[in-house]
Design a protein that fits this description.
alpha+beta, seven-stranded mixed sheet, four-stranded antiparallel sheet, about 25% helix
Length: about 425
Amino acid sequence: MLVDVKVPVLAESIPDATLLDWKKSPGESVSRDEIILELETDKVVLEVPAPQDGVLSEVLKKTGDVALSEEVLARIDTDAAPSAEAKPAKDEAAPAEPAAKQPPAAEQPPAPEPESGASAKGLSPAVQRLVSEHSLDPSAIKGTGKDGRLVKADVLDYLEKKKSEPTPQPPPSAPSAKPAPAPPVSGERGERREPMSRLRMRIAERLVDAQRTAAILTTFNEVDMQPVMELRKRYKEQFEKTHGVRLGFMSFFAKAAVQALQRFPAVNAYIEGKEIVYHDYQDIGVAVGSPRGLVVPVLRNVAQMSFADIEATIAEFGAKARDGALTVEDMSGGTFTISNGGVFGSLLSTPILNPPQSAILGMHKTQERPVVVGGEIVVRPVMYLALSYDHRIIDGREAVLFLVTIKEAIEDPARLLLGV
């Protein structure tokens, strides 16, 4: 029976997927739930498992092709046996097919008789191919097959050992009366081209769209991090012991953002056609670096999350981003975004909107600076904050007061508990 291998159901925001890598070839056996290919979308890499045991009988899409949601990619024959070409090379020690008739001996130079090791006679096609490709003398390789015949594994082991052997150095030459000229210095000026990943192309499209379609402005402020740092120092060990997760700074900023979003709902809204769509909930995207580029998984209903919930979820997102395990659901939606360039050392930046959202908060590096407190110059850990916003929907006054609300909450964390 033939069973279809299909593209998983994609979210409405993901139009298609690109075939990234086939893990199996036609004719090879597959097991149920074994990963047989990877698909790349503009958000995540999806692993596609085999739906049944059987043999991959037909591949309908090749690497690099684009496929739609639920499109058939391949078929598995649940009744077939693996083809001979797809089976592991177990029987390579068996004698090869009789060789084609050779020209008369007079027309060929006589071949030297091997002194030791395996004879070239009786080599399987796979072994003959390896010996020919690497210009090897089969008599120099010890065979472990029946009657001392060479098998593929013998040749591969021999090649591996040759790689690990040190390269013999030529003997030092006698000193010359005239010094040899220094080799000319040649600077490498190579170039290479690599196709952009779907994620990188999507990031590029979205950033250009944001710049082209929104009236983006950025307002700045600075925040004294000392109160939060002292609070964190005082309770971090007890927090981790109680909740099993470290207390970071992002949970404070997420909670402060919720308070500001509730106070200024336009920052939590977006434009659709001639209407403004407001949200009565706060889903905050947290920008995370990954090997494939910047991704933005979303914290859902942050107003109902505890500090421990936020920290645990962010830690989980970070691990999944490193492992390429973020799902489409992890990164769908979001009403507001926080980006922390400070973890990479950024002192100040103007973040770009994450469409269709209307605002994004940029956190930066905390650095000690001289500031005036109560008429005296003191040293305090200070962070610059940046709020980029769409001026079509958010007025300058709202943007400034939004950022001031976050500043006040961070500088006086009790506000987060009292809601003031």
